[in-house]
Amino acid sequence: MILLHTLERLKQINELIKTKSTGKPKEFSKKIGISESHLYRCINEIKEMGAPIKFCRKRDSYYYEKTFEIKVNYSIELVSEEESRKINAGFNLNNSSLLFYESGGL
User: Fold this and answer.
1) What is each CA distance from 59 to 21, 30, 44, 68, in whole angstroms?
2) pLDDT digits (tens, 9 = 90+) for 36-60
3) CA 103 to the chain's CA centroid
4) Residue 96 in contact with residue 77, Cβ under 8 Å?
5) Stated pTM of the model
6) Cβ within 8 Å of residue 57, ≥6 positions away
7) How far is CA 67 from CA 18, 53, 55, 70, 103, in A?
8) What is the tens place of the pLDDT at every residue in 67-101?
9) How many other C-beta atoms are found inside a 10 Å radius of the C-beta of residue 64?
10) Domains and CATH numbers, the chain
11) d(Cα 28, Cα 6) in Å, to the nearest integer?
12) 75-79 contact pairs (CB < 8 A, 24+)
């Protein structure tokens, strides 16, 4: 469930940036439980998606330069073996399947 963990981290990063409560990069990385270098990679990836992220030295916090929102939505549904066969055209690796639906946008 690495994907779920990544999506939850993205939501947490967004919330801290929105509220201008990230702290310096070292503090920010500790708040979300990743290394400082990983934080920089995450921020760069989010910037590449169009997020106007800046850092304010006066506030010691990242912030969005203009109104910006990241919305992450997902749902998980457990399906029966029969439903799984229909979905997977009869191919099934185990007795039940976990389907993951993702929607939302950046």
Assistant:
1) 9, 18, 20, 19
2) 999 999 999 999 999 999 999 999 9
3) 12
4) no
5) 0.69
6) none
7) 9, 10, 15, 11, 21
8) 988 887 878 888 888 887 777 665 555 544 444 44
9) 16
10) 2-64 (1.10.10), 71-105 (no CATH)
11) 16
12) 75/101, 76/100, 76/101, 77/101
Q: Is 78 helix (H, G, I), strand (E, B) or coil?
A: strand
Kindly report the number of other CB atoms within 10 A of residue 99's CB atom. Answer: 13
Q: Which two tokens stand for residue 38?
A: 């990983």
Q: Interior CA angle at 22 toward 20 and 26, to 5°?
A: 155
pLDDT digits (tens, 9 = 90+) for 17-28: 999 999 999 999
Q: How many helices (H) and strands (E) does the chain have?
A: 4, 4
Q: Residues 6-43, buried b or exposed e (16+ Cβ, 10 A)?
A: ebebbeebbebbbeebbbebeebbeebebeeeebeebb
